[in-house]
Design goal:
Structural class: alpha+beta
Oligomer: single chain
Strand order of the largest sheet: 1-2-5-4-3-12
Number of helices: 2
Helix content: 25-40%
Radius of gyration: 47 Å
CATH architecture of the largest domain: Beta Barrel
Strand content: 25-35%
Largest sheet: 6 strands, antiparallel, barrel
CATH topology of the largest domain: Thrombin, subunit H
Length: about 280
């Protein structure tokens, strides 16, 4: 058996050498050569396809990792853009508000020789019986008790307490007309300063301001703008208080009263002005 196998192997080798000699010097391929080439090509193709698929799979995994990293970077960029946009909108809004306030002070300076100390509202009392607000201006800045505090819209209140770097402001909606240390707000009507005069208090039942002790012949009517008169008390003149909503006959029919809608907006106060009149020592 062993010799038989060796004999077959030798015959095969002889035939292979003979085929090489027979085909030497020819440019064409014999059918055995073509068969061998086609067989190897088929095997190579069969092996290449799965190997190529595996290679492409790992290449796709690498691409997927790159895409994930790019998406993470894009998410961070979008988040940063959103934050920047919010910050930009806030700065734009604040810039517009400050421009309005600057215009307000310039207009007021043309009317009266007042100095306006802009202050930030840093706190507001939650006590229903003491709804004061605190600002970041104090004695160090020249603030004194009984100074007027306003916004661009109108009178907010009066400085009640002063510390070195902060002050407490009593809103006009909290001034108690029955208090022993009552601060009276003398008022008049814009454009009718020589014909009208009254005292402004806050009517808690109506949630409105009330101007009392108006002369029965005073030409005051609905829609008139009420301002501080600068008389009787320390408040400087010309600060807008509010708008007349209605008028009524006062006590005993000798005087009239007027209901006034406050000009200042007391919700969400952020910035106010402390009014320093010329006769008050400036900081």
């Amino acid at each position: 058996m062993r010799n038989k196998r060796l004999f077959i192997l030798m015959i095969g080798l002889i035939l292979f050498i003979a085929m090489l000699g027979f085909t030497s010097g020819r440019t064409g391929l014999s059918w055995p050569e073509r068969f061998v080439n086609d067989a190897f090509g088929t095997v190579q193709g069969a092996l290449y396809r799965p190997v190529g698929a595996v290679t492409e799979f790992f290449r796709d995994l690498g691409r997927l990792s790159d895409v994930y990293k790019e998406n993470e970077q894009l998410r961070l960029t979008v988040a940063q853009y959103t934050q920047d946009k919010i910050r930009y909108n806030q700065l734009e809004s604040e810039n517009a508000r400050l421009k309005d306030e600057l215009g307000f002070t310039e207009r007021q300076k043309q009317l009266y020789n007042y100095k306006y100390l802009i202050a930030q509202v840093v706190a507001s009392s939650s006590n229903p019986y003491d709804k004061t607000i605190k600002i970041n201006r104090g004695a160090h800045d020249g603030v004194k008790p009984k100074m007027a505090v306003q916004t661009v819209d109108g009178l907010v209140g009066i400085v009640s307490k002063v510390s070195e770097f902060t002050s407490t402001v009593m809103p006009i909606t909290e001034l108690d007309p029955t208090s022993s240390d009552r601060i009276s707000i003398s008022a008049t009507v814009l454009g009718k300063e020589d014909q009208t005069f009254g005292i402004v208090d806050y009517d808690k039942e109506r949630n409105m301001l009330q101007m009392s002790k108006i002369d029965e012949n005073a030409p005051i009517k609905e829609g008139d703008l009420v301002i501080t008169s600068g008389l009787v008390n320390v408040l400087p003149k010309g600060i807008l208080i509010g708008t007349v909503v209605s008028t009524q006959v006062g006590d005993f029919g000798l005087t009239h009263t007027a209901t006034i809608k406050p000009a200042a907006k007391f919700d969400h106060l952020t910035e106010v002005f402390v009014v320093v009149a010329p006769d008050v020592d400036a900081p």
